[in-house]
Amino acid sequence: MPSILNRVNRVTQYQRHYQKNDGLRLWLKGPKSKLLLTPYFFCLGVGFSGSVYGMFRLLAGKKSFF
C-alpha cells in the first residue's frame, strides 16, 4: 500500500510549468482552466451586455427590459 509520505515530489515540475514564459496568463496555464473559464467569461459578457442594453433602453425612456 503506497504511503502519502513516500510519493514523488512534483513541486519542481509544476514550478517549471507555471513559470514557463509562453505568453499565457497564469490563470490560463492550468489543465482545466479553459473548461472553467469559458462559461465564466460567457456569463460575464452576457451580464455586461444585458446591463448596457437596459441602460440604453432606460435612457430612451422605456422602463421595461423588453
From TrEMBL:
It is found in: Mitochondrion inner membrane. The chain crosses the membrane at residues 35-56. It holds the Pfam family COX7a. The keyword Mitochondrion applies. SUPFAM superfamilies: Mitochondrial cytochrome c oxidase subunit VIIa. The keyword Transmembrane helix applies. Its main location: mitochondrion. InterPro entries: COX7a (IPR039297), Cyt_c_oxidase_su7a_sf (IPR036539). It comes from the Eukaryota. Belongs to the cytochrome c oxidase VIIa family. This is Cytochrome c oxidase subunit VIIc. It comes from Discina gigas.
